[in-house]
Automatic annotation (TrEMBL):
This is Peptidase M13 family protein. Residues 1-20 form the signal peptide. Residues 498-699 form the Peptidase M13 C-terminal domain. Residues 70-446 form the Peptidase M13 N-terminal domain. Keywords: Hydrolase, Metal-binding, Metalloprotease, Protease, Signal, Zinc. SUPFAM superfamilies: Metalloproteases ('zincins'), catalytic domain. It comes from Lysobacter antibioticus. One of its GO terms (biological process) is protein processing. Its cofactor is Zn(2+).
Length: 702
């Protein structure tokens, strides 16, 4: 069983990478959710705030006054804090996002424990309680060993022909178990009011395609091969056979990788996800894998059209079904079945999974304690169910009201900035304003909750509960194919510390958990909040106009709404931003990839500038009170940098430089402010200092 969900689309452009936003994103539901103008009524949940870990916020004592804000702004604001706050053993990074994630996890734990203790629980409380109770029963999980997976492995053992392999891929996918490619519903790029089916590339165990070919990753490829062998051994394969099969799996995945697009390629050309074809034409492209039969096997009515994204990948899979010996297919499928299920099996499987994916690949020193791991699973499989309870105890109406005011102020500031752009023609500005007018903000939690009726869980088996939830989510998602988009759905649960922009719905979304310090603090002055959540709001709005978001119009359809001359001017400006970030060196010889991170860097730059304008307008002519000796403008930028204080393990940093669409946090702290004259004025910086970009080096886009 493979519970690692291949991503069908990476369209929700998140501001944070604390918990890979897409990795934990819930599969939305097609059926009508339950009405919820307020958080759903559950039993009397209680929250003991005295047991929650602290948040992180800007305090004057953190400043390193031996450093110059104009020379080393990151060190000035965050250097002392970073030196004093080592990465916990069960983390690979530590900063403002992670501290809020720990706090959210502590809230979730109290909720889950209460749900599990309620013997009469129904609905979402029963689902959460069952997952928590069975996940925490280490004795039963260890006693079961590999037993829960033996039925699936027995099916793989029978595969001895191309026809049986193709049939197995169809039948296993129908239960939500598909290690080879992503498949699910998403809005049609050309008709975003309606959902179609998308099939995307997948099948790789390593984070990105270059891990299979670039010499700088050869140590990780070798470690992955050793991991594959160990997992197969744990599954009962003799050591010598496991070693040979591991080599076969590496060869298998390397072939897939050569036919796949890298994360950078996908992030900088969203159109790669959209390749509309008829099932009949798709069948011709992949003669050994019938898409007509696949739709039938998934219980989905045969559509006139679906998106076969990255067709070369699917053509290669078809060739491999015909060319790769069945024994090698069995090794690949057996490994991924065990590997994907390992977090829910006995200790030996959990530890091997940790040793490679967390320790070797990312530098994590210690395995997370069981409770945190179970909560990660609940968030991944039943996140919105848990979210219904979370917002009942951890989110106030006052926070939502203040956020609505901030969103309104940021929106007005962005409109003015668009209207005043010197490089954009009047006709394109008109289109940009049309898109601005159609932004939909979502704050805190959904207006309608997802319906979880039909998901059967029990206190019998953790693995069985996770498997049931995984299949339920998959089938629920498939039920949306061919139906109108439900615009009330959310792509993140309320307890996730993140935010996102979805170009297909032109919406900006802020889950409840991010509305805490240092992002949003009801007790802080306006300047601090504008430098925190204000810049986040501006960031998400600006994603609508970044290099990929700008390819979608006000209704969410992919369309060309730019005059050619404006598109050329925009490209010239973004090239300068690429060059700025290419120059940032994280470690000797390890640079930020300015092209890969372009969308996020555009959003940071536009978001910070827009938030600053909104703050100044909100302040008006009122005197600057100077809090703790700092002006409004200074506190605005000080909190911006506080948001981006973050330590990484050396290995985690390498993974992020290769795979992450976001620049490392320390460069985000300085990248956007260095382009703003307001920053230089606030700290009396002089031309030529590192935090003052001027002339051809200064980048102003939105």
């Amino acid at each position: 069983m493979t519970f690692k969900k291949p991503q069908v689309l990476l369209l929700s452009l998140a501001i944070a990478t604390v918990v890979a936003a897409c990795g934990k994103q819930e599969t939305p539901a097609p059926t009508a959710p339950a009405a919820a103008d307020k958080p759903a009524e559950t039993s009397a949940l209680k929250l003991d705030e005295s047991k929650l870990p602290p948040v992180n916020r800007f305090v004057v004592a953190d400043l390193d006054t031996a450093k110059d804000a104009c020379t080393d702004f990151g060190g000035y604001v965050n250097g002392k804090w970073l030196a004093a706050n080592a990465i916990p053993g069960d983390r690979t990074s530590w900063g403002a996002f992670e501290m809020l994630d720990e706090r959210s996890t502590a809230v979730q734990r109290q909720i889950a424990e209460q749900a599990a203790a309620d013997s009469k629980a129904t609905g979402v409380e029963k689902i959460v309680g069952d997952l928590w109770s069975t996940g925490m029963d280490a004795a039963k999980i260890n006693a079961q060993g590999l037993e829960p997976l033996k039925g699936d492995l027995a099916k793989i053992d029978t595969l001895d022909s191309a026809e049986k392999i193709a049939d197995y891929l169809r039948s296993s996918a129908a239960t939500g178990d598909n290690p080879l490619f992503g498949f699910g519903a998403e809005a049609d790029f050309k008709d975003s009011a309606n959902n179609i089916a998308y099939a995307s590339q997948g099948g790789l165990g390593l984070p990105d395609t270059p891990y299979y070919s670039d010499a700088k990753h050869k140590d990780k490829l070798a470690a992955y091969e050793a991991h594959i062998a160990k997992v197969l051994e744990l599954g009962g394969t003799p050591a010598a056979d496991a070693a040979k099969q591991a080599k076969d799996v590496i060869s298998f995945e390397t072939r897939l990788a050569k036919a796949s697009k890298s994360r950078e390629e996908l992030s900088r050309d969203v159109s790669l996800y959209y390749n509309p074809v008829s099932p009949a034409d798709a069948d011709k492209l992949t003669p050994n894998f019938s898409w007509t039969k696949f739709f039938e096997s998934q219980g989905v009515a045969l559509p006139k059209m679906f998106s076969l994204a990255v067709p070369a990948f699917h053509q290669e899979v078809s060739k491999m079904i015909g060319e790769v010996p069945a024994e090698q297919w069995k090794a690949y499928l057996r490994f991924h079945a065990i590997d994907g299920a390992s977090p829910y099996l006995s200790d030996a499987f959990v530890e091997e999974n940790f040793n490679f994916y967390s320790k070797t690949l990312r530098g994590q020193k210690e395995l997370k304690e069981r409770g945190k791991r179970v909560l990660d699973t609940i968030e991944g499989q039943a996140g919105e169910a848990l979210g219904q309870m979370y917002v009942k105890v951890a989110f106030t109406p006052e926070s939502k009201e203040r956020m609505q005011t901030l969103v309104k102020n940021l929106s007005e500031a962005l409109k003015v900035r668009i209207e005043n752009l010197a490089w954009m023609s009047a006709d394109t500005k008109k289109k940009a304003i049309e898109k601005w007018a159609s932004f939909t903000p979502k704050i805190g939690y959904p207006d309608k909750w997802r319906d979880w009726n039909g998901l059967a869980t029990s206190r019998d088996s953790y693995y069985a509960n996770v498997k049931a939830a995984n299949e339920f989510n998959y089938k629920w998602n498939l039920g949306k194919i061919g139906k109108p988009v439900d615009k009330t759905e959310w792509g993140m649960p309320p307890q996730m510390v993140n935010a996102y922009y979805n170009p297909l719905q032109n919406e900006i979304v802020f889950p409840a958990a991010i509305l805490q310090p240092p992002f949003f603090d009801p007790k802080a002055d306006d300047a601090t909040n504008y430098g925190g959540i204000g810049a986040v709001i501006g960031h998400e709005m600006t994603h609508g106009y970044d290099d990929q978001g700008s390819r979608f119009g006000p209704t969410g359809n992919m369309e060309v709404w730019w005059a050619p001359s404006d598109a050329k001017a925009f490209s010239g400006l973004t090239d300068k931003l690429i060059q700025q970030f290419n120059a940032y060196e994280a470690a000797p010889g390890q640079h930020v990839n300015g092209k890969h991170t372009l969308g996020e860097n555009i959003a940071d730059l536009g978001g910070l500038a827009t938030a600053y304008d909104a703050m100044k307008k909100a302040a008006g002519d009122t005197p600057d009170p100077k809090t703790d000796g700092f002006t409004r403008d200074q506190r605005f930028f000080l909190n911006w940098a506080t948001v981006w204080r973050r330590n990484f393990t050396a290995e985690e940093m390498k993974v992020r430089l290769q795979t992450d669409e976001h620049a490392l946090a320390n460069f985000r702290a300085i990248g956007a402010p260095s382009n703003l004259p307001a920053f230089a004025a606030a700290f009396s910086c002089k031309p030529g200092q590192p935090m003052v970009r001027e002339g051809d080096k200064q980048v102003v886009i939105w």
